[in-house]
Specification:
two-stranded parallel ribbon; mainly alpha
C-alpha cells in the first residue's frame, strides 16, 4: 500500500480511492486504513483473473467516482516449488493472476481513460523476478523459492507496448 503521507496528499488534491482484493479481510483492513485518512474510499472484492469481474469492478468505480484517472495493477501470487514440479493448476493460477490480471486491468481501464479524454496513468507492478533469473538453480522467480518469473518478465514489456499503442489522450 502507498504510504499514508502520499495517500493524504492525493486526498488533499481531490483523489478518491477504490481498493480491490480477493481477500476480504485484507480488503477491509486496507479500506479502514485509507478511510481513516479522510479519503473517500470504496472496497471491491475482485479476482483479477476474471475479466468479467474486472469490468464489473470498473463499472462500480465509475458509478462511485465518475471517472478513473489512475489504475494500479498490483496483484501477484507465487508457488514455492521447482519449475519442473509445478502442476498445471499452479501454472494456470500464476499466469491468470500475475499476467492476465495486468492484461485485464489494462484492457478494461485504458479505453475508459481514453474515453473521458482527461488523461490518466496505468501502473503495472511486477515482481523483481521480472528483472532476474537464476539458471543455476533450475528455478525461476524470486528469492530462494524461485517460482514465477515468466509473468513478471512480460509485464514491463507489455506496459511499453501499451504506451506505444495507446498514444496521447484524444
Amino acid at each position: 500500500m502507498a504510504s499514508a503521507d502520499r495517500i493524504g496528499e492525493a486526498s488533499a488534491a481531490g483523489a478518491q480511492v477504490a481498493l480491490a482484493d480477493i481477500q476480504p479481510d485484507a480488503l477491509e483492513s486496507a479500506r479502514k486504513e485509507v478511510a481513516a485518512l479522510g479519503v473517500k474510499t470504496i472496497a471491491l472484492p475482485l479476482d483479477v483473473s476474471d475479466v468479467d469481474a474486472m469490468a464489473r469492478a470498473a463499472d462500480e468505480v465509475e458509478a462511485a467516482f465518475n471517472k478513473v484517472h489512475i489504475v494500479c495493477n498490483n496483484a501477484g501470487v507465487g508457488v514455492r516449488n521447482s519449475l519442473l514440479d509445478f502442476t498445471p493448476t499452479e501454472w494456470s493460477w500464476i499466469f491468470s493472476v500475475n499476467m492476465f490480471g495486468v492484461v485485464h486491468g489494462v484492457q478494461t481501464f485504458v479505453p475508459r481513460i481514453q474515453k473521458h479524454g482527461e488523461g490518466g496513468h496505468i501502473v503495472n507492478t511486477a515482481s523483481m523476478a521480472g528483472l532476474q533469473i537464476n539458471t543455476a538453480s533450475g528455478r525461476i522467480g524470486v528469492a530462494s523459492g524461485r517460482t514465477w518469473a515468466a509473468p513478471p518478465f512480460g509485464v514491463p514489456d507489455d506496459a511499453a507496448e501499451i504506451c506505444r499503442r495507446a498514444g496521447p489522450p484524444p
